[in-house]
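Box S2. Input/output pair 1.
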Amino acid sequence: MNKFNLKNLFWQIPLMLILFGSCTPSKYFKHYVYLSDSAKASHLTLVPPEQHKLQKGDRIRVNVTALNSLAAQQFNMQSVANPTLDISPSGLVNPDFTGYLIDNSGTIVFPQLGHVYVEGMTTDDVSKLLEQKLKQYLTDPAVSVSFVNFIINILGEVAHPGPMNLPDGKSSILDVVSRAGDLTLYGKRENILIIREKNGKREFGNLDLSSKDIFNSPYYYLQPGDIIYVDVNPNKLLSADTYQDRRISLVGLSFSVISTALLLINFFHLVK
């Protein structure tokens, strides 16, 4: 090997290492994209949410209004500690607020009306039923019903894991992920596990947040008691910063070793 070739080799090999080290595979970023296949979609069709039917142990909030507001007050159960605040800052139910409990017989105990059977009904059904029954006590009553303990749990790679209350009863997986502060850098968006109890059986569903197909899934809208688990992606041990740091360190070390080796080879070549 002559001196000219050694000089070329001295510059070419490090240059190749630098170019290799600067190339980050595109697949490294695919775990951070939501609905990546929807960019070219002109429209998406949503499956309407399945309204939760009340079960034993559920608690509901009932708000009654009428032309005579004073007469309607007796039908409104409020928090003992604070009439205007029944949800804590964390989104969970204030322990001082009980709501109307659906007992083992499937009924709630309502002022003036006594036991009212509501099991198997939706909140809209209960609103219409109570409006009809309250007409004997109030003029033009209007009733709104919402959940007190519509609670789901989100676990795994999210910013704020833990229980979450959904009083509207119609939140989607995207709503919940947003309220949990989004997935972490390590969250696996392609495989979100949903654990649901239905009709005495436990179901397991999977959602791919990188695909628009989630809108057609029966697990897109959540049900009370759902458990959401966000698995960890393969890059758990390679965050964006440490990944690049390791590449830079490797390239620097390789550059030093090769440079030293070439200098030694050139030295012994000159000696000869």
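Box S3. Input/output pair 2.
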Amino acid sequence: MQKTSLSLAYNSIVRSLAILIAVVSVFNVFMTSCLAESTLPRSEFVGIQEVRNWIKHGREFLFVDVREPKEFSSGHLPGAANIPYYEIEDRREEIPLDRPVVIYCTHSSWRAPYAGNLLADYGMNNVKILDGGASSWNAGGQIIYASSPKEPEIIPKPKDLKKEFKYPVQRKYKTQIDLTEKQLREFDGKNGRPAYVAVHGVIYDVTQSRLWRGGEHDPSDGQGYAGYDLTELLDLSPHGDKYVVKFPVVGRLVENK
């Protein structure tokens, strides 16, 4: 009788372990799938000094100015082509693949990163973003050119500049979840992890945004990171939460669970 009980207990333990192993395997496959979906390409920044060295040593490359035609006409970098950022996807075949392409806007704050990351989504790993943009290039004493008879200058970014963003297909959350601030930290957009941000108690998935690659927002000057409550930061920004609320809602930010 005792042996039979021990045998039953042993068999029960073995079955439980088998079920646990199966559950862990399914979970690992699920997490791997999620991580793969959230790993998105990002164009790297290149410094002005490095580009100057390219010019000095005769390296062939192309500047692409993603500002408005009026801005380009007033002053642009040498040999630059002008493709406004909102046209870059439809005109991506104009981007050469056989040499480096350096994209810039006024400060390379959001137009250039958006365009660069969009092209990275299409597998163009030869695209880089000029750190500091046209303003820094001009301030450093490098030559700029104008398409008009006027003296070339880098004019300020237009106040009425339209913002048109297109993103890859975004994940939909049929069942929403609540996260504490500690749990939110785990979704920082780094190393393939999804990028979540909280604003006014609501958690949004910005993983697919072309301005949130790697979990850092362009532009935020090192202040906007995924995995955090950005309510105070966005309340102080010019556009507030106008754009973040367009992303999928994951759930709500709670104090305790």
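Caption for Box S3: Helices lie at 2-38, 48-56, 69-74, 111-121, 133-139, 181-184, 231-236. The mean pLDDT is 85.
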